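Re: beginner question about structure tokens

> Can someone show what the tokenized structure looks like for a real chain? I only ever see the sequence side.

Sure, here's an example I had lying around. Input first:
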Amino acid sequence: MFQGSHQPSLNPDADQQRATDIAMENVRLLTGYLHRHAAERRRRPGDDLLSRLAEAEVDGERLSDEEMANFATILLVAGHVTTTLLLGNTVLCLDTYPEARAQARADRSTIAALIEESLRFLTPFAVVDRVTNTEVEIGGQRVPADQLLTLWVAAANRDPRQFPDPHVFDPTRDPNPHLAFGRGIHFCIGAPLARLEGRVVLGILLDRFPHLRLDPDDAPQFMPSPTLTGVRKLPLLLYPV
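And the corresponding structure tokens:
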């Protein structure tokens, strides 16, 4: 259905590996910067999030500088990349399913459900990692305590036992118990903001660009990562032919 020259792959080629190496180096630099910034805020607190993290306590324990830096990194990445992917994915779905686009233009109250289906259909964070607290049995398999698990929530969001016609983009899907924001105590703290941003931005796009559509002569390119689902390049046309 969607085509492009940068398809996700578990067996990256040289270009994908090079992109991964660059990304990891950027992460190292960002983490180092935030680590130094966290240490400075511990010495000289101000009216900012890192200072609040430095002062926070749970059962008498405070976060280390490394934990503060990791926390800040997650907030930066999760608050920026995921929303960007959500918006690009939703525009891509609307172009591929013109009946859904027409419905959204005719009735803006349908946008909220459309965003939820986009999150299910093209889950921005396709994979999450979790560590078991105790030994548990999953699908007949015994998993020991303190075991790191990689969970493919994007696959769960296409589970036919939970979603009729899971490979069909259906904004009228109800219920839609997708796992794009996680579940339980690990439910994404930014989910309400991401949903709000998606509804607001999509409404503005539909208002300002009534002829918004993909460029048929310039195919979208996907993120070269198996853990993220979304476009890195999405050429659009704004005016009628």
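Each token stands for a local structural state, so reading them left to right follows the chain. The beta strands are 57-58, 61-62, 127-131, 136-138, 141-143, 148-152, 213-214, 221-222, 231-233, 236-237.
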